[in-house]
Amino acid sequence: MGHRDGVRDRWGTRTPYGPGDPWPVRVDMRLADGLTEADVDEWVPSAAVLHSNGDGLDIAVRGGRVVGVRGRGDDRVNRGRLDPKDLFGWQANSAPDRLTTPLVRVDGELVEASWEEAMDRVVAHSKRLLDDQGPSAIGFCTSGQLFAEEYYTLAAIARGGLGTNHLDGNTRLCTATAAAALKESFGCDGQPGSYTDVDHADVIALFGHNVAETQAVLWTRVLDRLAGPRPPKLLCVDPRTTPVAEAATLHLAPIPGTNLALMNGLLHEVIANGWIDEDYIGQSTVGFDELKEMVADYPPDRVAEICGVPEDQLREAARLLGTAERLTSTVLQGFYQSHQATAAAVQVNNLHLVRGMLGKPGCGVLQMNGQPTAENTRECGADGDLTGFRNWANDSHVAELAEVWNVEPTQIPHYGPPTHLMQMLRYAENGTLRLLWVSATNPAVSLPDLPRIRSILSQERLFLVVQDAFLTETAALADVVLPAALWGEKTGTFTNADRTVHFSGKAVDPPGAARSDLDIFLDYARRMDFRDKDGNPFPQWHDAESAFQAWQQASAGRPCDYTGLSYAKLRTSGGIQWPCNEEHPDGTERLYADGKFFADPDYCESYGRDLVTGATMEPVEYKAMNPDGKAMIKAAEYLPPHECPDERFPFSLITGRTIYHFHTRTKTGRVPQLNDAEPEVWVEIAAEDAKRGGIEDGAVTAITTPRGTIHARARVTAIREGVLFLPFHYGYWDTADPAGRDGGRAANELTPTDWDPVSKQPLFKTAAASIAAADVEPPVHRPVGSDTEVLEDLEPRGASR
Amino acid sequence: MKIGLALRELHRAEKNLVRDLLKVSDRHKAEHEIHHVARDLAGWSERHVRDLAEAGRRYDLDLGTSVPTSGPLGTIREKASELTRGLAQPGLLLLADLRRLHRSAAGVSLDWELLAQGAQAVKDADLLALAQQCHPQTLRQMKWSNSMLKILSPQVLAS
Known about the structure:
heterodimer; A: about 800 residues; alpha/beta; Rossmann fold; Dimethylsulfoxide Reductase, domain 2; seven-stranded mixed sheet; six-stranded mixed sheet; 28 strands; B: about 160 residues; mainly alpha; Ferritin; about 0% strand; elongated
């Protein structure tokens, strides 16, 4: 067992294996300095929460404190391995600046308050708004970090209790396109493939997915295959030369914003060369002819011109994909946060449908997530869909949900799709949404066009509630701040990108008066006095386990069926993939193994949208198109991005992640090893561009878009010429301007407000930008662990208005 | 034969639709999805205008390939939208504009219907193919305005 230095040794030692063999166990561990396993009082089962991979681990407890983590060798996801963030990230739980008491704004300042006082304010404001305008005045922006029990409860409170349509997660930024692409192709959300497909594949294609940094342990699995006998070939599509690109058999670096043209071009070649499974297409799909007709317009020479990728590389890539015997494809933000996101991600599904490669070992599509519990927001109905993958446009689904909750169907808004996050912000901007409750996320750093976001969140007329473990940039703007427990301080379950459900136990008590998010939501419901049809308090559950049981009931008979699971079963298992029910007591490794889908008109989660306009399809249209519930092959034409480089802004700006940080560094920035690994924002630029612009490696630069300017040190890399890359993690809490009122550091100061019309995922990878050497002092951040009293630094809220 | 008449009328209607889409895009710059998608959809009608002009030549029509642009008024409309982005009132204007847009697209759709019927009657296969290629996009423009109206109206009307 390794006491691994995950900073210098990002993926650990190789344990090579061959196709079809089980991935060998390698247990990683990290304990506080000086401790050994013998010093640990208790190991509490859990899984990783600083990425979407869902690596099983045990939390080490000594003397009532978290003192480390150890990977679970019996876990199906990681076989003992841990991501660098998880090796060190647990230290954030005991950071000195945890929020330990509620805060309320008095005369422009956040001051300490009791729970009674804080919740009374929230409840009084909610009731006033309900009287004055109704539920449309209230919205919830939740997270990708809570547990299933918490999302399910929040969905019940928002939709069944208040009756508002405004509930979404910041998972809108990370996983909305995955859900949308699956719904478009298969009629329903639900990851078709499994991580074990890596064990069998002979070709692995990664579309806009820098798995080496976003899901380090899954990349370890790939590296171990590459080091073993008969390794798979890798295809990487990414404008950056990432670690994946460096290891790839073939690396395509398209111009940002042209993914759909690229995919149409690849499909053109696959179809033209007859690398298709006509039996599968005939039996299990509809829509192939439209695709064939569409991609006929995308011959290699045209696509080469649009995407800036050489023709021979396109042909070679198509050959790799077309002649693979066991093709596994993964998709992430390079597609999801780029122009025509859903349309491009759907073409990856199409690739597998035309090749008949689904549901078999090594033949999987993995439409990935960015955050650890993103999958649960989708299932539980906290991310723009109804609970249990129910269809808002299908009245019988709404009636079913109303029966589960024992409320009137009319209480659950279903006159349109649930409001997505960016639209909610727009409603807050125009003053029609007047209470926004943010839980465990940080829109003041993570959303695009931050000057606009700050101006919305700091309006006097918007009542902002922020529930978090730290005083984030968003919390600094709040009217009420509610201190929340973190992972390891509460009980629950969560599900990773390949449908693996893990139990996460309470290892220690939360600090001070902090409470679990579940307890906070339930407390609100009781104070609001929500009642079901029989006059009983709603929600009818009261703690994590009863919430889980209620959620199981709500999931019964749906694709994400949890009825075969229990806390006891999960506690001792190495992760179980849903659906798990009587029929599949050990879970389900791959969906759609029999060529049957969840797409029947009466069962499907969505009737679909127009891939270009985003218009919702009517039930009758869906029934006419897909009466037998087959997989749907949907084609779309390429359109140029909405913001293209020009003379003034000659670069394409893309944003992304580093392996050492998660989201807005709320946790990872408070961990010395991770913070020291990448303490400051940087910008990547190609050598030729740097030379032309007189920019030296390490020099401070100013990056500008029509939204603003930030400063960052240059890293001259092998990124595609004409493209700039910025990591999006860096905000302001660790600077002298903790609410970020003056901007200047976060990548999202620069990104535009534009989203995919289908998935509503904001686009972070199609801004036009300029860069120049800057004669300024580099940004300064405070070192981790300094005993700065954060509250003192807060300006009164009115100051910027 | 009155095919030329139908072509001329459709050409005029598609130009109007371009104008309407751009106007909606400019007037509602603060509604980001409307702003961007309306411009994408104007692109479809722009192509229809050029294709119709091309087809018109075979019927001795000089319809012209020029398409409307936002012009200087567009910039003023965009500015006005940005200045009023904190107000709820433009919401009603948006509903009215989407409603008008839907009717305008419906008119274009009917005109394509007529042209396709005429093309079949005079056995002009090229003209029929053009109608079959363009008309579905008009229907999608209609569905979009309808869909956005349906999705955005509850908040405008309830607040």
